[in-house]
Structure formats: structure tokens, C-alpha cells
Amino acid sequence: EFVEFNKFFTRIIDRFEMSKSQNVEFVRLLPEKSYYVDIDTDKLTQVIDNIISNALKYSPDGGNIRFGFTVHDNMLRVMISDDGMGIPKENVSRIFDRFYRVDRARARSMGGTGLGLAIAREMIETHGGKIWAESEEGQGTTIFFTLPYELDEAGDWE
Ligand code: ATP
Ligand code: MG
């Protein structure tokens, strides 16, 4: 299904912003221009839901969560960035492995299974994109993913 990415992303961010109980501010850095993505909207919603849930789970009181996207090499590059506890350098790439959780004690108290980002990676790769994380311990974490886009709804083949 072709959807306009800004609209699709905004709807998900709005849903979290309305229902969140934490004192965390949402900051949107979204371009106005229309970019269309041909996606399974249920699956992409699940991916973004998990990334935002993680960001909220690890955000400190009074922190920000930043939402943005930019265009690089004919792909949309989406980023969701928090001011949370971060992830030790040596573990950053492992958060996309099945059942991997950075700290078992911390993870147990936070709930969850450790599958969210493994599923996210599978779904993003199925859509022709990539997903990765950048993190600084004690500073925060940014999750990036890419998706191929079109500039109009019809795609390339008209
Ligand atoms: P599930 O998503 O299945 O409920 P989960 O959130 O623990 O469980 P993932 O979403 O796959 O699993 O994340 C894996 C691990 O990566 C988390 O347990 C956590 O240790 C770490 N992690 C993910 N996102 C962040 C973040 N924004 N800040 C700090 N650590 C994170
Ligand atoms: Mg998760």
C-alpha cells in the first residue's frame, strides 16, 4: 500500500503522545515535502511502535524524544532519538538479535521479551531497508532505519 510517510509517521507519534504517562517531550523534525512509501502498514506500525515504546521505557523524567527523517541515496532515513541511559558500545549491534537484552536485571524489571527489534530488523529488511542504532552510555540512543520512497503515489511504472 502506498502511503505518504509524514502522515503515516505523524499518526503513530500522535497516538503515543496522547496516551503517554511519562513526563517526556516529543520533538518533531519532519520535512513538509511528500514522500510515498510502498509498505505493509500494519508491519511498519509494529516496527515504529516498538522503537517508540523502547525510547519511552528508557527515557528519564523530563527527557525528549526526537522524531525525524531525511533523504539519503534515494532512501528515506528515519530516526527516533532519546535521552535515555544508552547502550554500552560493545552491545549496540546486538540489540537486533533475538532475545538479546542489554542487562538482564534491568530488562526483567522493564518487561518485554527481547524480540521487538529482531522483528523490526526482519520487517525493515523485507521492505528493502536497513536498521541500526547509535548510542552513548548515559546520553541516549538513536535508532535509524531506511525505506525506499517514490515522489508520487503512482510509483515509477505508469
Ligand atoms: P520487547 O520489545 O520484545 O517487548 P525489549 O524491548 O526488551 O522487549 P527489544 O525491543 O528487541 O526488546 O530491545 C532489545 C534490548 O535493547 C532491550 O531489552 C534494551 O536492553 C535495549 N534497548 C532497546 N532500545 C533501547 C533504548 N532506546 N535505550 C536503551 N536501551 C534500549
Ligand atoms: Mg522493545
UniProtKB/TrEMBL annotation:
Protein location: Cell membrane
Segments forming domain Histidine kinase: 1-151
Domain of life from the UniProt record: Bacteria
Protein name according to UniProt: histidine kinase
Gene that encodes the chain: walK
Covered range of the whole protein: 454 to 611 of 611
